[in-house]
Every structure is written in C-alpha cells, then in structure tokens.
Amino acid sequence: MATAIRPLPAACAAILALGAHVSAREACAQIQLAPRPGVGIVGGVSTPPVTLPSDAELAKIDVPAELVRIARSLDAEQYADRAAARAAILARRPSQNELMALLLRRDLGDEARQSLVGILRERILKSPRGALGIRMESMMLREEGVRITGVIAGMPAEKVLEVGDVVIEVNEAPLRDRNDLIREVQSLEPGDEVRVKVKRVRRDEAGKAMVDENGMELNELLDVKMRLGSTEDLEAQGDPLNPVAPNPLMQNPALLGREAIADAAAERFLPRPRVVPVRRAVSGPAQDGPRTVDSLRQLLVEFQLGGGSPELVRQFRARIDAIERQIVATAKAERADDDRARFEAAVDAILESIEEEIRAAR
Question: Which of 22, 23, 19, 27 is nearest to 289 (CA)?
C-alpha cells in the first residue's frame, strides 16, 4: 500500500487559519494510507471532512435582539465594557449556529468578530460530550464493530449492555472500529437518546454459549436505546481504560473533529487584517511586511485565543490604543517633515518593543 506523508493543514490553536504559528499537532506529519475520499488520517485517527452551515442556512436563524445588542458592545471603547459584554454572551450560552449567524452581520467591528470567534471556538471545543460508559476493543481481521470488554459502574451502559456484546451501529451509523464509536457517541450531548445495535451471543439457561452444527457461536441482533451519560462522569470514575482517551498515544477522534470544525469556523469568520503602513526611518534587518497597529492587534488576538493572561491582554490593548490615538492626532496636525519623520521612527520603535513583549509572553 502506498504511503504519502504531507504536513497537516495550517491551523494553529491560537489564531486558527491565519498561519502565524504552527501548533504541536501541525508539527506532526499527516500519514495517509489510502483513506476514503475526503477523509484524512492523523495519528491513526480518521478525520472526516468538515461542513459548516451555509450563509443561507445561518440567515434563517433568528438571533435574539438582546444578543445582537450585547455583541455590538464587544466593540466598546472601554475594556471593562468589552469584558462585560463577553461575560454576558458566555452567560447566555448561545448555540454554535447562533454565534455563526452573528458573525455574518456586517455591523460588527473587527474586535467584536475576533471575540465572537474566540467564544465560538470555546463552545465547539468544550461543549459537553456524551458517553456510554464502556471499555472496548476493535474487532480483529475484517470483522467490523466494537467488542465490549467491560462496563463502567454508574454509567448508562451498565444496565443495558453486556461484556462480549459487539456494537455494530450507533444511530444507524455502522462502526468499523472504536474510533467510529467514540466519534458517534461524543458528537452527542449528555442526556441525548442513542440507538445502539449490538450482536450478542445466545446462551442457554446455564449461561453457556450456544453453537451451531459447525461449532460456531450463535448470535442475536438487538436494538437498544439509552440516554447518554457524560465524559465528565466517565472521567470522574477514574477508570484507566475508559474510552475518553482510548490510548495515550492516540488522539481522541471526537476532539480532533471538534478542532477541525473550530479551524474551519475561524478561517471563515475571522476578519482579515488591514494593513496601515508606518513609513520606516530607522535602519535594521528587513522584516516580513510592515509592523503596524493592526498587525500588533492581530498578534494580540493570537495571544488571547492561545490562553494568554486577560490582564496582560488588557494592558497591551490599552498601549496599542494609545499609540493609535497618537498616530491619528499627528496625522491631522500640521508638522514639519522632520518632526513627522522623528515621530514615525519613535512609533516604529514602540511597536517593535510591544511586539517583542507580546511574543515573549506567549
């Protein structure tokens, strides 16, 4: 079988789709072993293609007027107002589609859009995940499905499924291996009803497996329904073999899928940076493009989405805002060319200093 190795798509965890930095996941190679069309394989885990709602579908969503009003406050001049707006949106717990519908609006500024993308990413990655509560293993050879090797006390599967059952479908989706089961179950939320089709060995009154004339075990197909538990409850059990992380050397396929959705959403909805050039009047090594107020703001968004300190974000943003006000005021003032050149050189030095500070804090 031919093996092709190529880098993962550019999508860094901090500021997805802007290609500024490479995450640990991107540093790995994507090993593709003749996957299904449109499906990649990362660390042995298949990653189906991502499809987000279309603009037409999102336009049909009725976003509450109060949510729109709060979203506009994400562009407020004062940091306290922006922070309060973000907290209010998080408290309302809007759906992912509501957030994407908000991001289609044209009356939101870049900062509001960047903040909304951060909230959307958090909702995608951290929304609750469903769980059956089983230990499992993939079937061998060409058999498809997942064999149950244990059930977790206090979880939904305990009352419905048995050790030895082979799960072959979840909500009519056929399972090839344990990754398929994890993906199907954890794409749902705790409390959702799930339909599971299992193949169970038939047993006699003494509990002995029944066999046919060729000595093969006799099976029966069962359709069972249950309400999902949560991965949080599963983790709380402290079971080292729970399917939240089936193998410490493999990534959770459900989380990989969520990361792919978050990547696609950021690429689609993050505003493209505007370049406001500042003429350079100092010597130094050539840089990749001009350093501007907007480029620093973009770097700050990367820092914020990457988990940077909110207090540092506030301080950096205040300094950048102050520089921008000085640039605007100077542009309107009548100054001699020499004075303007010295001002631009000073601004350039300050921008460089702030950039270095932000990068050092990451």
Answer: 19
Q: How many CA atoms lie within 13 A of 121 on its CB side?
A: 29
Cα angle, residue 120 at apex, residues 118 and 126 outer, rounded to 5°: 100
Q: What is the pLDDT of residues 44-63, one digit of tens each?
A: 455 667 889 999 999 999 99
- Provide the 8-state DSSP code for 171: T
Give the whole-angstrom CA distance, residue 209 versus residue 207.
7
Q: How long, in residues, is the chain? A: 362
Half-sphere exposure of 193 (CA within 13 A, CB side): 4
Query: pLDDT at residue 84 above 80?
Result: yes
Q: Which SS3 state, helix, strand or coil, does residue 173 take? A: strand
What the block records as the tokens of 150 is 């244990």
Type of residue at 128: P
Given this model, what pLDDT does residue 160 score? Answer: 92
The span from the CA of 157 to the CA of 194, in Å, is 11
State both tokens at 4. 């092709």
In angstroms, the CA 109 to CA 267 distance is: 17
CA distances 184 to 5, 23, 132, 155, Å, are: 27, 26, 11, 17
pLDDT score of 196: 95
Residue 223 buriedness (CB in 10 A; 0-12 / 13-18 / 19+): exposed
190 DSSP 8-state letter: T
CA distance 76 to 306: 23
Copy the structure tokens of residue 33. 């072993």
Distance CA(69)–CA(97), nearest Å, equals: 17
- Distance from C-alpha of 8 to C-alpha of 42, rounded to nearest angstrom: 8
Q: Are 263 and 17 in contact (CB under 8 A)?
A: yes
Whether the CB-CB separation of 153 and 184 falls below 8 Å is answered with no
Sequence-distant (≥ 6) Cβ neighbours of residue 213 within 8 angstroms:
none
* Distance of alpha carbon 29 from alpha carbon 1, whole angstroms: 18
pTM to 2 decimal places: 0.56
Express each pLDDT in 91-124 by its tens digit. Answer: 999 999 999 999 999 889 888 999 999 999 999 9
Q: How far is CA 184 from the centre of its chain?
A: 17
Q: How many CB atoms lie within 10 A of CB 109?
A: 13
